[in-house]
Amino acid sequence: MVEVYRKIEEVRKSRGVSKTFIAKKCNKSVQWYHGISIGRRTPNVNTVQEIAAALDVKPSIFFED
Fold first, then answer.
1. pLDDT exceeds 80 at position 1
2. Model pLDDT for residues 13-44, shown as the tens digit of each residue
3. Rounded Cα–Cα distance for residues 21 and 52 (Å)
4. Which ranges in the chain belong to alpha helices (H)?
């Protein structure tokens, strides 16, 4: 199973969305998102939902193989 942060990054890149865009949509800093994008910070359920909303996808996509 792909780790959640890797799947988030995969979806983000496939949608052509920047890290800055995600951070702004979630009202967080770019450093906050960067921590998630490299696996240093583990996103909680609310964070996963916020990122999914920013990417306009269902949160479940991050848990699919």
1. no
2. 999 999 999 999 999 999 999 999 999 999 99
3. 12
4. 4-14, 19-25, 30-37, 45-55
Q: Round to whole Å and give the CA distance between 31 and 14.
A: 21
Q: Is residue 65's pLDDT more than 90? A: no
pLDDT value at residue 25: 96
| Phi/psi of residue 37, nearest 5 degrees | -65, -20
Mean pLDDT for the chain overall: 95
The Cα–Cα gap between 28 and 60 comes to: 22
Q: Which fold has domain 4-57?
A: 434 Repressor (Amino-terminal Domain) (1.10.260)
Both tokens assigned to 26: 């979630």
- 25 Cβ contact partners less than 8 Å away, ≥ 6 residues apart: 50, 53, 54
